[in-house]
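Incident log, structure service

09:12 report received: a user says their structure output differs between two submissions of the same chain.
09:20 pulled the input from the user's history:
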Amino acid sequence: MNPSQLVAFVAVVAFAFMVMRGKHHKQENAVISDEEKAPLAFKATFLQNDEEKKKKMDEEMRVDRIRANEKRIVPVEVYDDENVLDLSEVTFDKLSMWEPVAINHTRRLKLDDSGRVYVMRTLALNPPVFEIEDFLEDSDCDTIINMAGDRGLMKSDFTYLDGSNKDETSKDTSEIDVDEAKDLFRFSEQTWLAHNSANLLSNMYNRAQKLTRLPESVMKKMEPMQVVRYKVGGHYFSHWDSEDDHQGPCCIDPYSRKHGLVTGVSAMDRPLEDRCRICRFMTVLYYLADTEEGGGTVFPLADYTDEELQEWEASTSADKFRETKDCQPGVAVLPKKRKAVLWYNHEVDNGFLGKRIKRSIHGGCDVKKGTKWIANHWISEIPHPDKPRTTAEGHY
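09:34 re-ran on a clean worker, output below:
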């Protein structure tokens, strides 16, 4: 290649380089056309939608977790112009719970065709505890006490929750003094009255069904009404009316009856596979007399925070279950003739028995003067029939 050809070649290469550099620079600064934008816009929209979908799924999972912990069925409450909820003709087909709403929240209820309005007031939120003053008449209370006396009262079982004193269950407590009685887990006398043994008891059964909004299939599982007398020094240390999942299948479950499972003191000397548990969904307690001093009912863990509950559970204090001595700390209900108190021992799980409410522990406070008379309706149910039955892991 001669000099003139070499110069020409260099010039061509330089020109080509400048053209390519200009084209590249133009591409870097060019405005992207709509056609070029479309795939990018689609990709951005897809990412945005994917993020929104993820957020939605996270929210649904959060709600599901809440529902898993608290699957309550809350019936709609329709009040009339006088702010009265008429339940006299209403029937229900599944377990449900009254929402406590707020402390001192009141509801006006009509439970029968008498035209009478009962006022129900919230005392605690967790567990839900309510009181209804004047649920009974004076004559009702007196009649029940007389019926219990005629039937005969017997010593209440005073076995500790852990069964540590089960060998003392045959001990005669009829003549012990107050100082000796104070160390008993329970010091009282009791009997049981069938719901159909008197018109009064049948009427109480019917009103209790309306008050609790329970189906007849559940009410039929209710135990006979327990009537209890506490003399001076009488008490019942803090306890649960129902038992926990790890204590076996429910005793009222046909499975337990078929296999001859038992609970209480009689179960403690038998293998765990022979044990069943008490499954009292809720309690309705009635005060049959005005006690001169003492004799209230205390809920020592009512409305405790989770941290406070954990601290109580970890406690090894000898007085852990003895809040009943002075009816504190906790939410205390004063004994008043004619009053009814209801609370829930379990949550509801889609219309069936759910987990036991730990904060439902309660006790009968010391009677310091006079006599305390109460009656109880214990209403039981089982978990969903398809839920597997598991052998008890412990007696307490």
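09:41 both user submissions now match this output. Likely a transient worker issue. Closing.
09:42 reviewer note: Confidence is low (pLDDT under 50) at residues 12-32, 35-43, 61-69. The longest strand covers residues 372-380.
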